[in-house]
Design goal:
Layout: H1 6-14, H2 18-25, H3 29-44, H4 72-87, H5 103-112, H6 130-136
Length: 137
Amino acid sequence: MKLISMTDYVLHYQNLSVQEITEILGNKYHARLPMFYEHYAKFLKLLLELWMFVPCDEDGKPMEEPSSDMSIRAINYREQYQKAQERVLFKGDDLGFYQNKGNEAKVLEFYKRGYETIEGLIFFDLELTDNAIKQLA
């Protein structure tokens, strides 16, 4: 699913058939639909943070891709990296984070350009990860 505006999100779900909505939200979709919209609205208002784009450790620092080393330390690091990767909200590296070691600077650059929330990134045509989509349901 692509990151879209709130208006497009509401219109998309308004145009689905009852069967399609039931597949997404279950049989009690009439009760859940307003909550579904509210989740997306809150999602769009989240302040941008680096972990939304690349795997970061608990301190918010970008993590290097794990090695294939089989030491206990490397195995633990791979597990931490996997958990951090599952938190990422946007697929791919469409914004070029891995091209530059100054990842924190990239997020700060969004702020300078007026992109403080996820909503500001709609025009970048970003794809949401499966985990991000699950959080919205």
